[in-house]
Amino acid sequence: MTLPDAAQPLSPEQATTAFDALLDGAVGDDAARDFILTMSLRGETAIEIAAAVRAIRARMIRVAAPDGAIDVCGTGGDMSNSLNVSTAVAIVVAACDVPVAKHGNRAASSQAGGADTLEALGLDLDRASETAEATLAEFGIAFLFAQKHHPALARLAPIRRSIQRRTIFNLTGPACNPAGVRRQLIGIARPDYLPIYADALAMLGTEDAILVAGDEPLDELSIGGPSTVIRLGHPPERITPADAGLPTHPLTAIRGGDAAYNAQALRRLLMGENGAYRDAVLFNSAAALIVARHARDWQDGVEEAAEAVDKGLAKALLDCWIAYCA
Predict the structure, then answer these.
(1) pLDDT class for 103, splitting at 50, 70, 90?
(2) CA within 20 to 30 Å of 57's CA: 22, 77, 156, 201, which one?
(3) What per-residue confidence (pLDDT) applies to 106?
(4) What are the φ/ψ torsions at residue 184 (nearest 5 degrees)?
(5) What is the mean predicted confidence (pLDDT) over 113-130?
(6) Contact assessment for residue 145 and residue 104, using Cβ atoms and an 8 Å cutoff
(7) Cα 283–chain centre separation
(8) Is 118 helix (H, G, I), strand (E, B) or coil?
(9) In the Cβ-directed half-sphere of 213, how many Cα atoms lie within 13 Å?
(10) Which residues does 237 contact at the CB level (< 8 Å), separation at least 6?
(11) What is the dihedral of CA 92, 174, 151, 62, to 10 degrees?
(12) Helix (H, G, I), strand (E, B), or coil: what is residue 27?
């Protein structure tokens, strides 16, 4: 088939037809590449993001999740090469008795993505995928490895790599959680896209979400300065670490390395090490606990997350999860 001209915003019908064709392999690689790249250069609309998400959701391998399960996930692509914040947040928040269906993948623009770091910690990714429903039910946590749950995207992977820039498929990732979570903390490395993404989530029927972007830009709440926050149905807000009772740190203080390096840092964090990484994780955990309705405000969320770390609950949860998936 012939794809519509992506230089112009697509109608809902055009977007639905185009993304169905892309995921079903109904267009050639060159045409697919030109379409995706042109849309990226022009700037994706909420209608297009929602249509792409619906197409991916229709083809993904789903898992069941407990009521109230959330996800904490970013779009990636911020080029910060930071330690794995959202992966650590998932473990800490799950230790606060909030089920977390963590959607993630291997690194795309950093040395170690969530999958790489969890693997370096000892988690068997294949077993973690096979037992996701069981670990969600028993421990309140699962890692939903994107490669295992989105086979329809495999065909587009080399095309996306050849483009060498962020595309609509970076934006769709957080909204395509295989557990069908209705509440999320989503980090977007493009602050100008926060209201567009919020509109897309509203079209998709998301119950509640907090969307965040650090000014640097980061696809998480920044520990180094201000961030923009949008909660669905609310106007944008500006927030700094001080609003959560936390100090600021230079981003170099949470610079990551390879998977082994990041795994060691995460282990030290869960064993109580203080510093910038801990504060970044507590800050973002607070946002997740707010959207899960387990915390009243930023400072309450930080205190709850800190307690889960300091009492050893988060470390114990990780150890039990790894042992179960061995």
Answers:
(1) very high
(2) 77
(3) 78
(4) -150, 150
(5) 93
(6) yes
(7) 15
(8) helix
(9) 22
(10) 228, 229, 230, 231
(11) 70
(12) coil
